[in-house]
Amino acid sequence: xxxxxxxxxxxxxxxxxxxxxxxxxxxxxxxxxxxxxxxxxxxxxxxxxxxxxxxxxxxxxxxxxxxxxxxxxxxxxxxxxxxxxxxxxxxxxxxxxxxxxxxxxxxxxxx
Amino acid sequence: xxxxxxxxxxxxxxxxxxxxxxxxxxxxxxxxxxxxxxxxxxxxxxxxxxxxxxxxxxxxxxxxxxxxxxxxxxxxxxxxxxxxxxxxxxxxxxxxxxxxxxxxxxxxxxxxxx
Lengths: 111, 114
Known about the structure:
The complex is a heterodimer of chains A (111) and B (114). By secondary structure, chain A is mostly beta strands.
């Protein structure tokens, strides 16, 4: 049974600070890792993907992957109130696999 | 360029009825996956279609079935609806190329079973 674990939160971060979101996964053969942002009542929006160990940066977002520890993280720099949402970690083993999602972390950016 | 589109956006059905949800993938994408998202949970994978065939299936009963058409659009059918089938149903499209194929979601269909 593939599992993806996330702290459900809420995680409260002051505006302008760094928000750090974490995710662990159980399937060692997982090869693709994604972060989705989901606003209340809306569908998930892809914000980052990462496939190899290390860091990947895109604007204010940095994804970090450590396959040995089966750990993925998302850093959001200079957090804005518009970043307040639920962040979903998703994992794919490869090929034609569907995504396995965590339950999501509810992030609140305090003005 | 239109993204992933789903219809209808909202639906109310009675327990025991059948429902059909529809999805048009993003231009250039040939693979469609369906997910069920209950309130407060992450999306759960139902199944994936490529070349008009079901390629992979999650842990859902046979009441959930689907179809993909030659133009890559897809339908999700749910028979004998239960109250527990009330959820947001999400369609995601992606290219069928290797492990990095990124999936993009439609706006979802909110199904309420009464």
